[in-house]
Amino acid sequence: MKRGNQIMNCIIVEDEPAAQSVLVTYISHCHDLRCLGNFGDAFSALDFLNANKVDLIFLDVNLPEMSGVSMVHSMVHPPLVIFTTAYPQYAVDGFDLEAVDFLLKPFSFERFHKAVEKARNKFNTQVQPILPPKLSLKSGKKIYQVSPDDIHFIEACGDYVTIFCSGKKLVVHGTMKYWEEKLKGNSFLKVHRTSIVNLSKIDHIDGNQIQIGEHKLPVSELFKEALLARMFGKSLE
After folding, report:
1. What number of other Cβ atoms are within 10 A of residue 139's Cβ?
2. Given Cys at both, which of 49, 63, 94, 216 links 99, Cβ 3.0 to 4.6 Å?
3. Superfamily name with CATH number, domain 8-125
4. Rounded distance, CA 40 to CA 27, Å?
5. Separation of alpha carbons 16 and 216, rounded Å
6. Mean pLDDT of 165-194
7. For residue range 138-170, what is the model confidence (pLDDT) as tens digits?
């Protein structure tokens, strides 16, 4: 199933402040790009990627401690990547990793926009996971048919999770990672290592807490920026 021009969540991984500033400015001129973070090294970027859905990385090849190429090698399912560098000899490494494009610094907005267009074309032809109308959930000796829209949130419970639905809660086998992947691409988002929430069920956010009905759920600082970006399109102070 093809998608229209949806918002692409992106991050910048660049250790030079001047280059960071250029990318931030260029991204701000692209209506379908949303920058979720700006990182000066690969390790902090990887921590963010492990906890947030990112569609595109603007990635400097030359980074302290771990190079951009090594960073991509370390990821099982990397997002789309546009490499940037001042050294053209690294272009071969970038294309060996099936990078969308390779930008040689300094690059113009026109050249940047051409690279983004390539990423947009790839992004819009990817298949978006679609949840079935009903999920079959085995809880105890019973099997329930549950609409994804009826799920309010999910909490970790060892090798099981508790799924809070309209009028009931079900304890089912499965890890948070499994449910995060199963619900990926829909209105669900991991907001803490112990919880995934249905964004459409949130009553309000108060600091680092989410209110869903009578339940208060913590929001980790690691996930808060992504939560606000998904709900409001930007970070809120």
Report:
1. 17
2. 94
3. Response regulator (3.40.50.2300)
4. 17
5. 40
6. 86
7. 998 899 999 999 999 999 988 899 999 988 999
